[in-house]
Amino acid sequence: MNLDYLKVFYVTANNKSFSQTAKDLHLSQSSVSLQIKQLEEQWDCQLFERTTKKISLTPAGEILYHKVKKLIALMNETENELEELKGSVHGDLKVGASLTIGEHVLPFLLSDFSNLYPKVSLHLNVYNSGQIVEKLLNHEINLGFIESMLSYPALKQVPFAKDELIIIASPENKFIKTNNITIEELLKVPIIIREKGSGTRQVMEDSFRKCHVDPSKLNVIMELKHTEAIKSCVEAGLGISIISKSAVKKELRIGTLKQLNLEGITMQRDFYMIYHEEALKHTSRKLMEFISSRQ
């Protein structure tokens, strides 16, 4: 029995796509198809129903899927127990984080973690929340960090830090001369915000609605996917923005941006660690313990 083939089968079953599996596992699509075919020949049964638009598991495929899921969990449990027995912390640790956390929160924590556990090889990539969930379910990453809670019963989510969204402007901006802004002014001033679907955008809109302010009334002149681009536009005086305080600590300190105080609306949220309990590695647990101890 080839464990690599079983992993390809498992990821394909989750993705319901040969092409997406090939992309996720950095294989050719023909290689994915060949490995599935070899498994089918080995057990003399069809594992997937194939149509031109999608694939789905056959009854035999369903049986194998649940067995492989248990096998992966057992392998991870065995690895964790052996690592605990040896008393060492080493190995690969693949982490996926959303933009704000990956760029402005985790780098400092991971640096200290690496100093404490130098034998752990860390790999950090920035994804959106949907990609993080997908990669956790496919066992492509070991641990995820997201900016708002998601509804995925198969995954556990634990808050690890508080965050606040604040209104920022250039000190030289021509719109608001004081350090305070009213709701009426906020709805008139040109504003640059994150794209729809981002955690920051969601928290901002939810906070406004709770205070009976319609976010669609904002004078949005630009939607951007990257925090750094938003900061640059605000520094250039194009408008104001609402952004994570974690992302502008340096700019506030050196004075290239300033915070505007808005009375009546607070925009707070939790950052979450998200993981697959059955697939949690020894190194992942150590990182979670380390981060929790720092809060």
From TrEMBL:
Q: Which UniProt keywords apply?
A: DNA-binding, Transcription, Transcription regulation
Q: Is the Transcription keyword given for this protein?
A: yes
GO MF term set? DNA-binding transcription factor activity; transcription cis-regulatory region binding
The UniProt entry, under InterPro entries, shows: LysR-like_Sec_metab, LysR_HTH_N, LysR_subst-bd, WH-like_DNA-bd_sf, WH_DNA-bd_sf
Tell me one Pfam family matched here. Answer: LysR_substrate
Q: Where is the HTH lysR-type domain?
A: 1-58
Q: Which PANTHER family does its entry note?
A: HTH-TYPE TRANSCRIPTIONAL REGULATOR, HTH-TYPE TRANSCRIPTIONAL REGULATOR GLTR
Write out the similarity annotation.
Belongs to the LysR transcriptional regulatory family.
Q: What is this protein called?
A: HTH lysR-type domain-containing protein
Query: Upper lineage ranks?
Result: Bacteria, Bacillati, Bacillota, Bacilli, Bacillales
